[in-house]
Design goal:
Layout (H helix, E strand, L loop, with lengths): L1 H16 L1 H7 L6 H7 L1 H12 L21 H5 L10 H20 L15 E4 L2 E4 H4 E7 L2 E6 L5 H9 L8 E3 L2 E5 L5 H37 L5 H34 L2
Antiparallel strand pairs: 1-2, 3-4, 4-6, 5-6
Helix pairs in contact: 2-4, 3-4, 6-9, 6-10, 9-10
């Protein structure tokens, strides 16, 4: 009898304390039959706690995309419809950069007349490393067939003389006090023909570079077209890209023709 009273008292306390106490008592062996008579809800709660399984939490696994893979259709759909599919300003700047590079190379060609650009490619070996000749000296035209190079720092004229001589330009400079005089020999018919022939390869190289810029722009347009861009709008952009490409190739051709005339008249 005393044992039964003790169990009853424990059950009453269990009913008063609530869920927290039930959780603590769940692992212990309790007389379920007695609890069900005293408080059915408490007994049900005990059985539920005893039978429950621990909950395991799983993080979502992100799929790793392959580097350099094709853009998914979902990513293409995120394109802002008000945003231009191709940055035409950037594309034309890249084409212009190729054109300016060609112009610089043409100016450095030896055509029999003194031109400071003839020495643009010369690098001078100094004690602390190498530097562009134009960064450490002033290059000017002394007369029609001679260039004058004046170093910014006294004593570097001998280093400049050696660097020009070894630059592979076919020039033979001479020292003049703290300066360097660079005679520009007249071209022969053979050398002129060789220069004009070389213009053909320069022209092709420039065309390839400009068309590469066009290819990159067309690839951007193709990506944007996946985002349900109207076909007529795609064709309009293609036309604009091709028009810009033709314009810069034509400019390159004009530079080359002008240089060819200059060489022939030298």
């Amino acid at each position: 009898m005393a044992s039964r009273v003790l169990v009853t008292a424990r059950a009453c306390r269990l009913c008063r304390v609530g869920n927290a106490s039930l959780s603590m008592l769940a692992p212990r062996v309790v007389n379920t039959a007695i609890l069900s008579r005293l408080h059915p809800t408490a007994a049900m709660l005990q059985r539920s706690l005893a039978q429950s399984q621990p909950i395991r939490m799983y993080g979502s696994k992100k799929k790793g995309g392959k580097k350099g893979g094709k853009q998914s259709e979902e990513e293409a759909d995120k394109r802002d419809p008000d945003e231009d599919p191709v940055d035409m300003d950037k594309m034309e700047k890249n084409m212009q950069a190729r054109l300016e590079r060609l112009s610089s190379e043409l100016q450095s060609l030896h055509v029999g007349r003194a031109n400071p650009a003839l020495l643009n490619s010369v690098r001078v070996q100094l004690k602390g490393g190498t530097a562009n000749l134009t960064d450490i000296a002033l290059v000017t035209v002394k007369n029609a067939h001679n260039l004058l190079v004046i170093p910014n720092t006294f004593g570097e004229h001998t280093l400049i003389d050696t660097s020009i001589r070894n630059a592979g330009l076919g020039l033979n400079p001479r020292l003049d006090k703290n300066a360097v005089i660079v005679p520009v020999p007249k071209t022969t018919k053979e050398s002129r023909d060789k220069l004009i022939k070389g213009l053909g390869s320069m022209a092709e190289q420039t065309r390839v570079q400009i068309r590469k810029v066009r290819h990159d722009a067309m690839r951007q347009l193709k990506t944007a077209a996946k985002a349900s861009m109207p076909k007529d709008e795609v064709r309009s952009w293609e036309k604009d890209i091709q028009t810009a490409t033709d314009k810069y190739i034509a400019k390159a051709e004009e530079l080359l023709k002008a240089k060819a005339r200059d060489i022939e008249q030298a």
